């Protein structure tokens, strides 16, 4: 990821399986697999809709659902079909498997077969301060507060945000699995790769770039001059 592009993104890095945004906000992502809703009986469809509605009402924080269409790995799927054909004992099933493989191969030659990746993004933001200090008080604080102490406070605030995010991820993951929706949490390396892919590249992320994105070093919390202007070279809240 070029440095100029990375500067335009509101991303500070990836830490503990979470995307840390500039300003101390954090995001985690789950990858969910679709279910054959249309093939379910009407009563089961109504039950799933009611359960999903109850799940959404139980949340006290927003979710973002991202659906991405991308070319399906047809060659891998065909290789899987061929490997399974030898395990079929029924001649009828073997014939159907061969016909299905031929159909998929012909379809892939005629058009691009797409698959959908579904991501559920869970968010957590740092808690706002109880009251904004006045400019005169800030001036006094800057005179006596040591910079390492301010950095420690920023690190503690990030850790608190990450703990809150972990609880929310567990709640969402448990809720989706209970609905019969298979899902899993993306690791830090997978998050970096997904970000890389969304920027328009299908090549694997170079290891040196991945290593550059993964660490997150919190700087001194942003202090303003009373007019909302940030003072100092710090992480800017947005």
Number of helices: 8
**Main beta-sheet annotation:** 6 strands, antiparallel
Series of secondary-structure elements, N-terminal to C-terminal? HEEEHEHHEHHEHHEE
Note poorly predicted spans.
206-212, 217-238
Distance between the termini: 23 Å
Residue fraction in strands: 15-25%
Give the overall silhouette: extended
- By secondary-structure content and strand pairing, the structural class works out as alpha+beta
| Average pLDDT figure | 77
- Please count the beta strands (DSSP E, at least 2 residues each): 8
Helix content: 40-55%
Query: Any idea what the radius of gyration is?
Result: 24 Å
Domain count: 2
Task: Name its key features.
about 240 residues, alpha+beta, 2 domains, 6-stranded antiparallel beta sheet, two-stranded antiparallel ribbon, disordered C terminus
Structure, described:
With 238 residues, the protein is an alpha+beta fold. It has two domains: 169 residues, no CATH class; 40 residues. Helices cover 48% and strands 18% of the residues. The protein contains eight helices and eight strands; from the N terminus they run H-E-E-E-H-E-H-H-E-H-H-E-H-H-E-E. The strands form two sheets. Strands 1, 2, 3, 4, 5 and 6 form a six-stranded antiparallel β-sheet that branches. A hairpin with a 5-residue loop joins strand 7 and strand 8. It is extended and about 75 Å long. The C terminus is likely disordered.
């Amino acid at each position: 990821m070029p440095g100029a592009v990375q500067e335009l993104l509101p991303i500070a890095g990836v830490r503990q399986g979470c995307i840390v945004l500039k300003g101390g906000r954090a995001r985690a992502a789950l990858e969910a697999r679709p279910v054959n809703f249309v093939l379910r009986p009407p009563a089961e469809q109504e039950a799933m809709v009611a359960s999903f509605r109850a799940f959404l009402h139980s949340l006290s924080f927003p979710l973002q659902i991202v659906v991405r269409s991308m070319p399906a790995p047809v060659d891998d799927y065909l290789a899987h079909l061929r490997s399974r054909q030898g395990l079929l004992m029924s001649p009828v099933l073997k014939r159907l498997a061969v016909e299905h493989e031929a159909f998929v191969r012909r379809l892939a030659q005629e058009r691009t077969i797409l698959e959908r990746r579904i991501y559920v993004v869970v968010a957590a933001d740092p808690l706002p301060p109880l009251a904004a200090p006045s400019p005169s008080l800030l001036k006094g604080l800057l005179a006596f507060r040591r910079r390492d102490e301010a950095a420690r406070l920023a690190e503690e605030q990030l850790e608190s945000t990450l703990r809150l995010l972990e609880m929310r991820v567990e709640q969402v993951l448990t809720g989706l699995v209970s609905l019969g929706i298979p899902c899993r949490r993306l690791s830090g390396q997978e998050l970096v790769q997904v970000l890389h892919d969304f920027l328009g590249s299908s090549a694997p992320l170079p290891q040196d770039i991945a290593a550059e994105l993964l660490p997150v070093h919190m700087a001194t919390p942003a202090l303003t001059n009373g007019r909302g202007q940030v003072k100092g070279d710090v992480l800017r809240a947005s």
